[in-house]
Amino acid sequence: xxxxxxxxxxxxxxxxxxxxxxxxxxxxxxxxxxxxxxxxxxxxxxxxxxxxxxxxxxxxxxxxxxxxxxxxxxx
Length: 75
Description:
Residues 41-68 form a coiled coil. This is Exodeoxyribonuclease VII small subunit. InterPro entries: Exonuc_VII_S, Exonuc_VII_ssu_sf. Its EC number is 3.1.11.6. This protein has one domain: Orthogonal Bundle (Helix Hairpins). Helix content is 65%, strand content 5%. The chain has two helices and two strands; from the N terminus they run ααββ. Strand 1 (60-61) and strand 2 form a beta hairpin. Helix 1 runs antiparallel to helix 2 (27-58). The longest helix is centred in the middle third of the chain and has 32 residues, at 27-58.
C-alpha cells in the first residue's frame, strides 16, 4: 500500500464502508474490501497516535511533558 495521508485513508475507508453496507458486493469482493478497510483503519490509528505524541510534546510545560486528555465534548 502506497503511503497515504490520514485524510485520503479516511476517505477510502468511508468508501469501503459504504460499499460493504450496500450489500451489492460478492463474498470475495467483500472480503477484499474488508481486509483493505482493516489495514486503512490501522494506518489511521497509527497516524492519530503519532499526532497525539506530537501534541503531548507541544504541551511541554516547565521542561516536563504534561499530557492533557483531549475532551471532544465541550462543557
